[in-house]
Specification:
The protein has about 525 residues and is α+β, with helices and mostly antiparallel strands. The protein has 16 helices and twelve strands. It has a five-stranded antiparallel sheet with strand order 2-1-5-4-3, with helices on both faces. A five-stranded mixed sheet has the order 7-9-10-12-11. The protein has a two-stranded antiparallel sheet with strand order 6-8. A hairpin with a 5-residue loop joins strand 3 and strand 4.
């Protein structure tokens, strides 16, 4: 095992008899093939330009290296692969982000296999092993990539200091090469003289929403750092650049365009040029990595919820069905009257609510499987409004519909789109007062350079406080006394499965507006 690899004891699944190495061997060829195809088609133009046979050999070597880590806790092969692939990708002009995405595809392909085939007792541990392996690989590769950049820059700075007096003409030529190298790397490059910015490359400016380097040269670097992280940055980078106890790479929040705080990783080292002290810094945007880690944790959570839900649903549904049937029989008995009849109706209503909660849990926990086909969105809206007409009339509310007559059909799962519309209508019903109004409209618009069909559901209720809007699609988040917090989470999950998106905003005068956008063209994943 490699010296600096994470130390972890590999345990056999003695109780279940399950062997992770056997699972990895069984799916090896399929995953390598799909990994190669997705590299070629999805990651970037750099990978699309490579020979598919070469990509196949590369993914096979990466898969086998991961196999040794996951099955044997042996990091030797992955270290060798990282060293070789770093040199190859640097020479080919690949940005760091492309290779990080390529590694992440392994997680995307292997986790569904583990969720499907690993015993419940082993699943969390197996997913954790995959996450640990990927985190270690990406971190080691990124550091190696960064060190090679820094080595080039440091060697060049040393040459400049030694030759500046005797080789002025060569210095100018080398200066041009240095500038080109620094300006073309995808990570931000920053040179500090004390607290002041002495040099930045275009990538650094782009990360901070700055048009030209001249805007920030000789200004304080700390004004580009979130105020809660300024003290730590001042200690680590400015006051103590030679302190060996400080981690070589650390995270902080930078201030991007419009003052947004974004997760950032920095590596720095002191340097001396022409008798003056500088600090060389590599600044990397880790927003995508943070999102992937969050998504990975959510996948683990959902896998766990799915296991619990699947195991309990049968045990809960059978008693509920028996109770519901007996209550229906009792409801036919004319002997109940007054408070007894009212108590029986309340019990029946609560049983129905329990069934709804259980169904929402099952819908959210299980992976979404689509049955796509041509769908007329206007027909779906009319069907859902008619279906809920009794609920509208019960509180004397109105539902006004404004449909675009020339709306094109889309490719989608009709049942799932109906469920989305029904959930939004029920959410609007819960938000309005008696005799309130709900508005539903459809149309076509352009979003992110793509044509989409939209379904807009708004109401004239009290609206959602602005500070709560970012959380309403989170699982189990609810402000309702009897809500489960899964209705809107299910809406977002089903819309995203169709490669669409959902927006929410406050109404112009009152209430809330939900807008679901679905692509007009292209196939939906089945």
């Amino acid at each position: 095992m490699a010296k600096d690899a994470p130390v972890k004891t590999v345990l056999a699944d003695n109780l279940t008899g399950f062997r992770l190495d056997a699972l990895l061997e069984r799916h090896r060829e399929r995953i390598i093939r799909e990994w190669r195809d997705r590299l070629f088609k999805e990651v970037s133009d750099n990978y699309a330009a490579r020979n598919p046979d070469e990509l196949g050999k590369t993914t096979a070597r990466a898969y086998d290296a991961f196999f040794h880590v996951l099955a044997e806790n042996d990091y030797t092969a992955i270290h060798r692969f990282i060293n070789e692939i770093t040199s190859i990708r640097l020479e080919s002009g690949f940005p760091l982000d492309d290779v990080q995405k390529a590694f992440e595809l392994f997680r995307i392909l292997i986790v569904p296999v583990l969720v499907k085939e690993s015993p419940k007792a082993c699943l969390c541990r197996h997913i954790e092993q995959v996450n640990t392996c990927l985190a270690y690989t990406i971190h080691r590769f990124s550091n190696h990539f960064q060190k090679m950049h820094e080595t080039c820059l440091k060697e060049y700075a040393d040459r400049l200091e030694q030759d500046v007096a005797a080789r002025t003409a060569q210095l100018k030529e080398s200066e041009h090469k240095y500038k080109t190298l620094v300006e073309e790397i995808s990570d931000g490059y920053l040179v500090l003289e004390g607290e002041r910015i002495a040099f930045v490359n275009p990538a650094f400016c782009q990360m901070h929403g700055i048009d030209t380097p001249e805007e920030i040269l000789m200004t304080s670097f700390l004004r580009l750092v979130h105020k809660k992280d300024q003290t730590a940055l001042r200690e680590r980078v400015i006051r103590n650049p030679l302190d060996n106890t400080v981690p070589a790479v650390f995270e902080y929040r930078r201030l991007g365009k419009e003052g947004r705080a974004l997760p950032t990783e920095m590596g720095c080292r002191p340097s001396r040029f022409e008798g003056r002290e500088y600090t060389l810094c590599i600044v990397r945007d880790i927003t995508r990595r943070v999102k992937l880690e969050k998504k990975s944790r959510q996948m683990e959570r959902m896998a766990y919820i799915g296991q619990i839900t699947a195991s309990l649903s049968h045990e809960i549904r059978n008693p509920l069905s028996s109770i519901k049937m007996n209550l229906q029989i009792l409801g036919q008995n004319n002997g109940f009257a007054g408070n007894d009849e009212k108590r029986l109706q309340i019990t029946q209503t609560e049983i129905q609510r329990l069934e709804t909660i259980l169904q929402q849990l099952l819908d959210f926990a299980k992976p979404i499987s689509l049955a796509p086909g041509p769908v007329n969105v206007n027909d779906v809206v009319n069907f859902c409004v008619t279906l809920l007409d009794v609920k509208f009339r019960k509180i004397q509310a109105s539902c006004r519909v404004d449909l675009e007559p020339s709306l094109p059909d889309i490719t989608a799962d009709k049942a799932k789109i109906e469920q989305v519309v029904i959930n939004l209508l029920l959410n609007a019903l819960d938000s309005i007062r008696p005799a309130g109004n709900v508005f539903v409209s459809t149309g076509v618009q352009t979003q992110n350079m793509k044509t989409v069909v939209f379904i807009r559901v708004s109401d004239d209720g009290d609206g959602i406080p602005p500070d709560l809007i970012p959380h309403i699609f989170e699982p189990f988040y609810t402000t309702k006394m009897k809500g489960t917090g899964l209705g809107l989470a299910n809406v977002k999950q089903m819309v995203q499965a169709h490669d669409g998106f959902v927006h929410v905003k406050a109404g112009k005068t009152c209430g809330t507006v939900f807008e679901v956008c679905l692509p007009c063209e292209g196939d939906v994943r089945g």
